[in-house]
Amino acid sequence: MSHNLALCKILVKKAVDAGAKALFLPEATDYIASNPQESIALAQPMESSPFLLGLKEAARDSSLAINVGIHVPAKSGKIYNRSCWIDQTGTIKPGYIYDKVHVFDYGALKESNSVEPGSSIAEPVETIVGRVGLLICFDLRFPEISLALKRKNAQVITYPSAFTVPTGKAHWETLLRARAIETQAYVIAAAQVGAHNEKRTSYGHSMVVDPWGKVLVDLPGEGTDPEMGLVDIDLDYHEKIKREMPLLRRTC
Ligand SMILES: O=C(O)CNC(=O)[C@H](CS)NC(=O)CCC(=O)C(=O)O
């Protein structure tokens, strides 16, 4: 976790140097464990997690908002797979969190062994880059939840992710573009890349798609340094797309 925090701080510096107002980090940025027991054992409460406290401090010191995926202990003894919005003062206000609703049980991965599913869709967060709807990774396959955020006027939807390589190759870009086209929102999907342990490798291809479905960023995931892309979130463009093709007024 201290290693991951150090990598995050490199990205914070890159973001600040590039003039960014917000930085989007992947799902499970604190750690990816080798098995469900380890994942549960490593989870720390938000109040005392050195990873999260360090990231909040970095946000405050650099006046940079940060979206990050972490693990948090749940009352059931399992953990929540959580997406947090840290604002540019380093604060996670009430309502700035979302717990992954759809857990990923596929092939060798049984997320439900360790993760307690969340039970609600968070209101979009009013941020320095617009109204941000928080979702996570496998939620990407369930259009309903992103359309619920569209009805709540989300301008940006985030999917911090750690997709598997085969499902990523088959579906990742198509799903992200579809969600952006349907919701007419910016879709931002920071993704883990490469080998985590002998059993797990993530697909990568961190991607940003604009409200028309155009891919603005697709990071190659090469080399050893953490990579970052830079985009302008153009809220006027988002409005224009919605005005010219008002999908919500129609019924079906
Ligand atoms: O394990 C952790 O700590 C973090 N969580 C994840 O990486 C999760 C659960 S295993 N991964 C996914 O949801 C991949 C979804 C996917 O690949 C797909 O929908 O095709």
Principal-axes geometry comes out as globular
Task: Provide the β-strand percentage band.
Answer: 15-25%
CATH architecture: 4-Layer Sandwich
Largest sheet: 6 strands, mixed
The whole-number mean of residue pLDDT values reads 96
Question: How much is the radius of gyration in Å?
Answer: 17 Å
CATH top level assignment: Alpha Beta
CATH superfamily: Carbon-nitrogen hydrolase
Uncertain segments: none
Protein name: Carbon-nitrogen hydrolase-2
Keywords: Hydrolase
Domain CN hydrolase: 1-237
Organism: Coleophoma cylindrospora
Notes on the protein architecture:
By secondary structure, the chain is of the alpha+beta class. It has a single domain, classed as Nitrilase/N-carbamoyl-D-aminoacid amidohydrolase. It has 6 helices and 14 strands. It has helices at 2-17, 36-42, 50-62, 143-151, 165-183, 235-244, and strands at residues 22-24, 65-73, 79-86, 97-99, 105-106, 109-110, 125-127, 130-134, 156-158, 186-189, 193-195, 201-203, 207-209, 215-218. It has a 6-stranded mixed sheet with strand order 7-8-9-10-13-14, with helices on one face. A 4-stranded mixed sheet has the order 1-2-3-4. Strand 11 (193-195) and strand 12 (201-203) form a beta hairpin. Helix 1 runs parallel beside helix 3. The longest helix is centred in the C-terminal third of the chain and has 19 residues, at 165-183. The radius of gyration is 17 Å and the shape is globular. The protein starts with a helix and ends in an 8-residue tail after the last helix. The mean pLDDT is 96. Bound molecules: N-(4-carboxy-4-oxobutanoyl)-L-cysteinylglycine (KGT). Residues 1-237 form the CN hydrolase domain. It holds the Pfam family CN_hydrolase. Keywords: Hydrolase.
